[in-house]
Amino acid sequence: MNLVIETRQLSRHFGNVAALDKIDIRIRQGEFVAIMGASGSGKTTLMNILTCMDTLSSGQLLLDNEDVSAFDEDQRRLFRADKMGLVFQQFHLIPYLSALENVMLAQHYHSVVDLAAAQQVLTQVGLAHRFDHLPSQLSGGEQQRVCIARALVNSPEILFADEPTGNLDEQNEQLVLALLRQLHAEGRTIVMVTHNPELGKVADRVIRLQHGKLVENTTDDMVAV
Ligand SMILES: Nc1ncnc2c1ncn2[C@@H]1O[C@H](COP(=O)(O)OP(=O)(O)OP(=O)(O)O)[C@@H](O)[C@H]1O
C-alpha cells in the first residue's frame, strides 16, 4: 500500500522548546489515523507541519513520496490546495454564503467551478436538502458537514481533521464520526487530531505524542520511541 505521509526524524523547535523531537511516522493510503496526546504534547505543531502550514526545524517530510521539506511557501500552498482537505474545530464558513456557495468557494480557490461536483459532495455528507441554507440556518453538526464537503470537493488525497467534533454536542458528534467512518470505508485517507478517546477509537490506529516525542504508534513495522 502506498505511503502518503512519511516523516523521518522530524523535529520542530520554538526557541529552546522541542515541540516535536525526532518523530518517525508513516501513514498509508486509505488509513484512518488519530493523533492524540495531552495539551502541549505537539499535536497542533505536527498537524501544521503535515498540512504544510508550518516548516520543520530538521528531519524530512515526504508527502505522496515527494520531499516537501525544502518547499518554499508558494509550493507548500499549491501542494496543500492540490492534495489536502482540511476540517477544523471552528467551522470557518462564510456567514453570508449558502452551504452550496461555501463549498463552491473552495473550488474557486482551486480555479475550477463545478456546480454538479459541489452538489454531489453536499449530497454525500447528507445535506442534499440544505444547499441554499446559510450557516446560521444550519445546526452545528450540519455546519461541520458543510466543512467536510468543502474539504472533499477537490478530491484531496488526504483529509485532515483537527478536533472535528470539538464544538459539537453528543448527537452531532456521532453524526460527524459516522460520516468520517463512511469516508474511510470508501477508501479516503484520514488524519485526525483529537483529545477525545472516544474519537480515537474510530481510527485504525493512534499516533500518541508526549512532550513532543512519539510514545505510541500501533503498527508492527514501526518502532515506538
Ligand atoms: N509558536 C510557538 N512559539 C513557541 N512555542 C510554541 C509555539 N507553538 C507551540 N509551542 C509550544 O510547543 C509545544 C507543543 O504545542 P502544540 O500546540 O503543538 O500542543 P498541542 O498538543 O496541540 O496542545 P493543545 O492540545 O493544548 O492544543 C507546547 O509546549 C507549546 O507551548
UniProtKB/TrEMBL annotation:
Domain ABC transporter: 5-225
GO molecular function, one term: ATP binding
Key word Acyltransferase present: no
GO cellular component terms listed in the entry, alphabetical order: transmembrane transporter complex
Pfam families in alphabetical order: ABC_tran
Any coiled-coil regions, as ranges: none
This protein's UniProt keywords: ATP-binding, Nucleotide-binding, Transport
Protein's UniProt keywords contain Transferase: no
InterPro entries to which the protein is assigned, alphabetical: AAA+_ATPase (IPR003593), ABC_transporter-like_ATP-bd (IPR003439), ABC_transporter-like_CS (IPR017871), MacB-like_ATP-bd (IPR017911), P-loop_NTPase (IPR027417)
Family: Belongs to the ABC transporter superfamily. Macrolide exporter (TC 3.A.1.122) family.
Protein's name in the database: Putative ABC transport system ATP-binding protein
Organism classification: Bacteria, Pseudomonadati, Pseudomonadota, Gammaproteobacteria, Aeromonadales
